[in-house]
Amino acid sequence: MKLARSPKNPILQTTGNGWESKAVMNCAVFEYEGKINLLYRAQGEENVSYFGLARLSSPDTVEERLSTPVFSPEPKNKYESSGVEDPRVTKINDTFYVVYTAASRVEPIPYASDLYEREGWRIRVSLATTQDFKVFSRSGVIIRDVNSKNGALFPEKIGGKFYLLHRISPSIKLATSQDGVNYKDVGEVFGPRQGSWDSFKVGAGGPPIKTKCGWLLFYHGLTSERVYRLGIVFLDLNDPTKVLARTTDPILEPKESYEKEGLVNNVVFSCGAIEKNNEYLVYYGAGDKVVCLATIDKEKVLKWAKKQVGKFKR
């Protein structure tokens, strides 16, 4: 089971605008005003990340792209001094929840067990909300006091609570909240598999998609050689800590030149997927440099999931 790349890839590239002149990547995808929209991460030569917005006329054709960022790091926010990264967008009722990573540099701790601390990074899952992508309300850091990223909010409450996936390296965790702002971890969902393509660490892609077989989650995994690939898991609808199915082999891995060569080589990294016309449209960053699209038939995925549920062993 593999994703099929769009022949138009890459669908989004850098421009002469300073804030997005070095890289565009890792976009959220959502529908707004009848169109597919991409909220994408961008970098200029100063290596600070911003969010840009593009509207599509078809799944792989850009119709309109704003020339200025729609979301920027707060100048006095110590957590965002290196930028805002890797947005994931979830719509609940009439509100769009933008979960993102706030990034900043700190003094490295050479012998720390945490890789980010050793490399001098402080990363925090953060939240902003909007109804029009013009005005945002910031909630700030929502997973506190620990390096965490890849936050993805479920599109509906479960048992009256908000559910959020995030990654404390190397595994995907689950957190819940009554108010959507203050989150508490409830446990690990799944982690790396020894000897596999996702043996080093794993992280959530976009927000989970509800299906009759469970919550569909596209996720990334990598080896110690830092080759990023994509896979699929299905989670229980009522208890997302339960993994019902997981692909043995990757559904997408770096093969094209724009995936194998970039600011970071050998990367395919998704922050969002949607269902459209009986397909899953998976948008992904390639080589930390450009934005691409790959698709897969919905029924093929669900047919595979039905066969796996019940016999899957964690």
Automatic annotation (TrEMBL):
Keywords: Glycosyltransferase, Transferase. GO terms for molecular function: glycosyltransferase activity. Residues 66-85 are annotated as: Disordered. Residues 75-85 have a biased composition (Basic and acidic residues). The keyword Acetylation does not apply. It holds the Pfam family Glyco_hydro_130. InterPro entries: Glyco_hydro_beta-prop_sf (IPR023296), Mannoside_phosphorylase (IPR007184). It comes from the Bacteria. PANTHER family: GLYCOSIDASE (PTHR34106:SF5). Belongs to the glycosyl hydrolase 130 family. This is Glycosidase. The lineage of its organism: Bacteria, Candidatus Woeseibacteriota.
